[in-house]
Amino acid sequence: xxxxxxxVLIKPEGVQRHLVGKIIQRFEDAGFKIVGMKxxxxxxxxxxxxxxxxxxxxxxxxxxxxxxxxxTEGPVVAMxxxxxxxxxxxxxxxxxxxxxxxxxxTIRGDFxxxxxxxxxxxxxxxxxxxxxxGNKQDAEHEIKLWFKNSELHSYKTIQDFxxx
Length: 164
Ligand code: ADP
What we know:
four-stranded antiparallel β-sheet; Alpha-Beta Plaits; alpha+beta; about 15% strand; 10 helices; globular
């Protein structure tokens, strides 16, 4: 059993569509603990530190540029979520990258439906509401980038008393 921390961002269209509460509810329902949370409107320089050159290697230069435009178009809600193997668990709740292929029951499958093909045709990033760290290394980098230590809290919830 490993208690991990992971970074989640509700992307600008999630905030604009008033989905913040519903999205957070999904993580709380599964027993995950929010240990840090804030709203930020980041600039392109900061966005480049979040979407590093790694994304360019995986998805190409164009996708990285589109993503930087997307993530800076309005405020995001950033949070650090803690729980048992939370990196994998949170991504399961989030769903797949392409909403079209993300199954019902996932955030991206329930609140979005667009495809890569549609986004590519419009020359925009695929709008999929949420970011969640992909692995341990990314989670560590992203948490450090978005949160100071003093903004993260250590406390007990009902989960700690009964399940851990
Ligand atoms: P995830 O966010 O599911 O971990 P990636 O890290 O691979 O996925 O990609 C980051 C983001 O880039 C995705 O969430 C999505 O918004 C966007 N994206 C990825 N691939 C494409 C694509 N082919 N066309 C448009 N946007 C894309």
